[in-house]
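Exercise 3.2. Students should predict the tertiary structure of the chain below and write it as structure tokens, then compare their answer with the key that follows.

Predict this chain's 3D structure.
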Amino acid sequence: MAVTMDVGFETVGNATLICHDRGPVLVTDPWISGSAYFGSWGRSHEIPAEQMDAIHRCKFVWLSHGHPDHLSSESLHVLRTKTILLPDHVGGRIFASLKEQGYDVHILKDRVWTDLSDRIKIMCIADYFQDAILLVDLNGRLLVNKNDANDRGWKRFVKRIIKQYHVSFLLSLSGFGDADMINFVDEGGTRILPYAARKYPVGRAIAAETEDFGTLFFVPFSSFHKYQRKDSVWAEEYRTTLADYPRGYYLQSRAILPAFIRYDCLSDAVAEIAPPESPAVLLDPEHFDDKWAEPLEASDVTEIRKYFKSFAHLAKYLDFVNVRVGGKDNVVELGSAQFKRGITFAAPRHSLMLAVRHEIFDDLLIGNFMKTTLHGKWTLDKLYPDFTPFVAKYGDNGRAKSDEELAQYFEAYKRRAPIDFVRHELESRSKHIIRGCIPYESGAYRLGRRMYWSLKTSWRSGVRPQTGALLSRADDRMQSQTLARNGDPLGGE
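Answer key:
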């Protein structure tokens, strides 16, 4: 039977939050059907019928950013009668596209509360990486839907808001690190072991992030996919499972909850949703029209050259980009003729040309079937900060490619919160300098990181008033019961 909830929330799917106030009101990033990243990703778990029904009954849909596991065109099509809420991203690409398709689309003003119902209000913050977070005040409880985003100057502001709430939740991407481009090969074609192979205990990073933000609870989020293409399934080994999230978690004063839950904001009762895993699927690249032996046509090469040359920053940092398709190299000269530093992308023609023509190159990177070789001297962060951000974030999505457009782009974000923006810019430069001098995950780096987190969190000792009993109650409830697909909610006290 259906479970009713007067006011509360549920987390299901990949990055889907459902907020209720006398019925479903808001759903975020609904990836409820189809695949993502040119067929590379499928959903790791099914969405139970009850939550699927709630998604379809929501009035509002919030979309955080343009990645297809968050903005799923196939999923959005069946929700096209809903009111779409968007972050105020500079460039307005998603807004313009959805508006053209006939959707009812509204942009949320940055850092301003908007009422959706009597007991639900939301605040959206967009950042210059074309990501966004959503704060939800749900009957006096705060949900921080951080999804994929990292701090781009908004963390201090958000932490000040979190302090105003006794009960708060951080919903955030976490894991070993496969939800990014990790398919690097050396110049001999041998795959380079990704950082995700170290399988650093996920719970440790979750504990540090939870304490840093100061929320009472952490909910694993935006992390639930599985690989289904034969040319990307190699990355399945590095995917984070549900059992991996709590491993290494060390906090007593703040709790990590299961990934899929329902939370009643009247009784503060938490219950686990136990969706079945999606069936294993293994598909040939040809299923998605990708034929690795298919060569580029002459017109394709022209489009590719125009595409990469349109990003002004690349010529300042790279000498060339080489696209290897059908076993043939196609070199795009960018900087000096010395060819000291460059990239080779080995990809099938169909997906490559879709990525170029539709300006969604990040989707090709994250799919992890394209192989990437770095030539010459690179930073420890490889494609960051000089390739991926300028191509995928500021360029493709932000529509800023020339030097003048980039200057205007960053100035637009800076005007929204000048002090936070400048502070973040200085911190980012400092971190980049340090990362360039000290090998990542070396003994010195780990010591410095521990000292950093110690200083950041030393002032927070103990639990805020009135929350100790809530933590204990949540822990007892989660240990005693699990909510099956159509089970009853845990009763209130």
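Discussion points: The chain has 14 helices and 21 strands. The chain has three domains: 7-180+192-283+463-480, 286-407, 417-454.
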